[in-house]
UniProtKB/TrEMBL annotation:
Homodimer. Its EC number is 5.3.1.1. It catalyses: D-glyceraldehyde 3-phosphate = dihydroxyacetone phosphate. GO terms for molecular function: triose-phosphate isomerase activity. This is Triosephosphate isomerase. PROSITE patterns: TIM_1, TIM_2. Keywords: Cytoplasm, Gluconeogenesis, Glycolysis, Isomerase. PANTHER family: TRIOSEPHOSPHATE ISOMERASE. The gene is tpiA. It comes from the Bacteria.
Length: 256
């Protein structure tokens, strides 16, 4: 299981430090072994270095929220994978629906960014998901299928434990709305994604991780994480309060 906190555009240095300290302290005496999941925090870029320093010596890992598809050069305002590695990141979120909507990132660009993350030694966490309009007209699986298909040619042949495909299913209508998808809807999409990945990658698909994101809270986390083909969560709002985030981690079933 993998639990990722996406802080989005929240947190100045002081609040980021406090939040990171609260999470590390809360995980406290638990060793990496007894923790039922891997935990990754994705602060805004300006707080990455300071959060990296606060996480030093803990089991919690650091991730970026986006990266450039380019290696370096004249791309004002962009941050490349090597720079993320340089401030301690091992992971990076790619293709979040907010970036798809705000920055016009299409499936092809998301796939190139994922390839850049693999190239630069980062673990990409690629977001997919349908809008409310797409769900209402019955196009959910078609949309998710196309988003996944765009990734397939860019996934390296040789995957490792540290670099595999991680996909986060985040229905756009469930993000920040308090309205999370019903368990049956999550089960349907996650099962569909696993089958798509099996068709593309065979036995390797079993080791790829499928996260759910969208209004995950302590109250609903346990039932979502208990679903087959759900290998963790991508948490937005509830990752901004250490107590809520820790309660979500506590909801991870012991079997993992
Ligand atoms: P919320 O948990 O706030 O709905 O956000 C989900 C998300 O977008 C995580 O990337």
């Amino acid at each position: 299981m993998l639990i990722v906190g996406n802080w989005k555009m929240n947190g100045l240095i002081e609040t980021a430090q406090e939040l990171a300290d609260g999470i590390v302290a809360g995980l406290g005496a638990r060793s990496g072994r007894s923790l039922p999941c891997e935990v990754v925090l994705c602060p805004p870029a300006t707080a990455l270095l300071t959060v990296h320093q606060r996480l030093d010596g803990s089991v919690v890992k650091l991730g970026g929220q986006d990266l450039s598809e380019h290696e370096s050069g004249a791309h004002t305002g962009e941050i490349c994978g090597i720079m993320l590695r340089n401030v301690g990141c091992r992971h990076v979120i790619v293709g979040h629906s907010e970036r798809r909507a705000d920055c016009g990132e299409d499936d092809a660009k998301v796939a190139r960014k994922m390839a850049a993350a693999f190239r630069d030694g980062l673990q990409p966490i690629v977001c997919v998901g349908e809008t409310l309009n797409e769900r209402e007209r019955g196009a959910t699986l078609e949309v998710i299928g196309a988003q996944l298909a765009a990734l397939v040619p860019y996934v390296p042949r040789e995957l490792t434990r540290r670099q595999t495909l991680v996909v986060a299913y985040e229905p756009v209508w469930a993000i920040g709305t308090g309205r999370n998808a019903e368990l049956e809807q999550i089960r349907e999409v996650h099962g569909f994604m696993r089958r798509q990945l099996e068709e593309a990658f065979g036995a390797d698909a079993a080791r790829m991780r499928l996260l759910y994101g969208g209004s995950v809270k302590p109250a609903n986390a346990g039932s979502i994480f208990g679903l087959e083909d759900v290998d963790g969560g991508l948490i937005g709002g509830a990752s901004l309060k250490s107590a809520e985030f820790l309660a979500i981690i506590d909801a991870v079933p012991e079997k993992f």
